Amino acid sequence: MSQTESTPGRIRLLPSATADRIAAGEVVERPAAAVKELVENALDAGARRVSVVLEGGGSARIMVEDDGTGMAPDDLAMAVERHATSKLPEEAMLFRIATLGFRGEALPSIGAVARLSIVSRTAGGAAHRITVEGGAKGAVAPAAGAPGTRVEVRDLFYATPARRKFLRQPSTEAAAAVEAVRRLALAWPGVGFRAEVEGREVLALPPQDRDARIAALLGPEFAAQAVPVLAEAEGMTLTGLAALPIHTRATTGGQHLVVNDRPVQDPMLRAALRVAYRDLIEKGRHPAAALFLAIDPEAVDVNVHPGKAELRFREGERVRGMVIGALRRALGVGAGTAGGWSAGTPGGWRPSPPRAEAPWQAATPNAWQAPGFAEAPTQIAPAQTALPLAFSRAAPPAIAEDAPDGPLGRPLAQLLETYVLAEAPDGALVLVDQHAAHERLTHEALRAQLIEGGVRAQPLLLPAVVDLPRAEAAALLAAAPALARLGLELEGFGGGAVLVRALPALLGTADPGPLLRDLAEEVADWASGDDLPALESRLDAAVARLACHGSIRAGRRLNAAEMSALLRQMEATPRAATCSHGRPTVLRLDQAALERMFGRR
What we know:
Strand content: 15-25%
Mean pLDDT: 77
Distance between the termini: 82 Å
Number of domains: 3
CATH topology of the largest domain: Ribosomal Protein S8, Chain: A, domain 1
Helix content: 25-40%
Number of strands: 29
CATH class of the largest domain: Alpha Beta
Number of helices: 19
CATH architecture of the largest domain: 2-Layer Sandwich
Largest sheet: 9 strands, mixed
Low-confidence stretches: 1-6, 335-403, 527-534
């Protein structure tokens, strides 16, 4: 290289191989991106069946095979050239994109950083092969193959070893790739999909209708606890299923959004989903939905994100309003309803009746009370069943009248079947959220057992079978050795079924279904081979999930002994001022605070 060429600040053209590898990094940042691009190509080629094989998390080998239209020899040679495509018949189509991608971007990008082999055959024609290694293209040659296209990628990023160093564990990369296939499978129910990881089939979906595909991928419980969504406006149609507010998730992983057959994770659409459920679900929980938006291609720009996961709508507010309105109507929330949900007929749910608009209601002609206080019992509610507190699974002993009170005082009443009202020794009023408080007690008790060597398990008399989406079941079973330390004993039961043989003893008779779904989201990103501190941190996060499911809920009536035992245990428990999610468990109103509220000072 000459002195002129190496002088800092001089502008020069990059070698074509370097430029291609830089461009490839925008399209293929990990194996999942390569899988997504190749499957999208298959769908754009009219495939009715798509098969994906992964080895070494996709970095060792990716194979995507389809039964689409295939390519003739001349097209095969052109397909690996940059900026070549069969998907934009004319320049104006750039603003009206009706396909998933541009074949002329994915294939040369992958070929620039890996060893790429493509075998393709049109109906009635002969099969041909072309190879690309590190950007070097081979000649088209005759080959053997069925109608359609088979793309094989080996040694991904061998030509850019720095990128390979940033890949995660093979199991994590494989899970991300399979998730990309699952999202495309949800968007294209009429196409059969199969995925294999390290020789094990993890996805097997025949061509089916949309409802069957949703049930297969999101689980039968989601389908059973979801309501149909349907809305039409000029140039737009929204369909799909939205889960009832009783079916929430710990993360946004249960939200599946499809626009013009394209899976997206668009922030505006996610915000619309969040707003629609805002006053229906607990803070910190997330709704689940599978929504399909059909819109005029000219009204949406799919090229604002390298992976086309985010969109730009010409009339974004109009789209947002339609989505929110459609969801609220489907959930039974509208004029005259408060948005709460209560049990209706045995087979379904109905919106709760509207509440009074006024913030205060008259209890008697001359006395005013908050509506919740008017409805709550003025005396301590009788017990229904024994409270499974973190320190004992039996009913707590009765508290003597002269038993000493701690800083949280003595219980006076239970309000709205959710809050314990107590009087502190100094006369202050104390309000305790019974679920949040008991969640922290359970969390700390489980954590203490974990530190001592493992959470004590309680074998189930009859093992429970929980049906989950295959990806969630696979994540749980992969983490089974670690979960055993939490007192949770799991086995595979075929397909997406998981057999639960034991639960943590402190959880009592917790329903294993919701518990396993939350844990599946927690362990989805766990990778093998992590060091112990990282694993311990993840186990503690899983303990928090367990504690939430093992705690008493709002709506559970408590007796005097149970409320007093809850207060005493809080006083003896570290971090009891907040629950596992960081929300406060107790509020205190002293004389000064009450006087300020009533304008007396």
